[in-house]
């Protein structure tokens, strides 16, 4: 993640690098928005990522951004080690239930 980018720009950058050129830009933007909703990054869309421990996002916000960066790649499988540790208020059970419908429809 580049320090001068916002959360939204970081996700779009990641998605555009990983999708093929034949995927419409509007589709990429819509997918990024969906992932941001999933990991509750919408309120932080215009926040600068910044440097760890100095400026920008907190540790738990960075964790959510890191998860989102991987999800915008539309992976077939995701391994996560303690994705909800830290201060993220979303309980593990709810997080898994949010991901499960997407996983079963090949949307994420």
What does it look like?
With 108 residues, the chain is an all-alpha fold. The chain has one domain. Helices cover 48% and strands 0% of the residues.
What features would you highlight for this structure?
single chain; mainly alpha; 108 residues; 4 helices
Structural class of the secondary elements? mainly alpha
Low-confidence stretches: none
- Biggest sheet statistics: none
**Total count of domains:** 1
In short:
By secondary structure, this protein is mostly helical. The chain has 4 helices and no strands. Helix 1 crosses helix 2 and helix 1 packs parallel to helix 3.
Set down the secondary structure blueprint.
Blueprint: H1 7-18, H2 25-38, H3 59-71, H4 92-104
Helix pairs in contact: 1-2, 1-3
């Amino acid at each position: 993640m580049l320090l001068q980018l916002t959360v939204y720009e970081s996700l779009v950058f990641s998605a555009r690098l990983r999708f093929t050129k034949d995927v419409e830009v509007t589709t990429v933007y819509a997918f990024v928005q969906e992932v941001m909703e999933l990991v509750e990054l919408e309120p932080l869309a215009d926040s600068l990522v910044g440097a760890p421990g100095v400026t920008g996002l907190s540790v738990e916000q960075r964790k959510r951004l890191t998860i989102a960066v991987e999800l915008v790649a539309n992976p077939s499988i995701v391994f996560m080690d303690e994705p909800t540790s830290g201060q993220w208020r979303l309980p593990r059970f709810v997080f898994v239930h949010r991901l499960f419908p997407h996983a079963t429809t090949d949307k994420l």
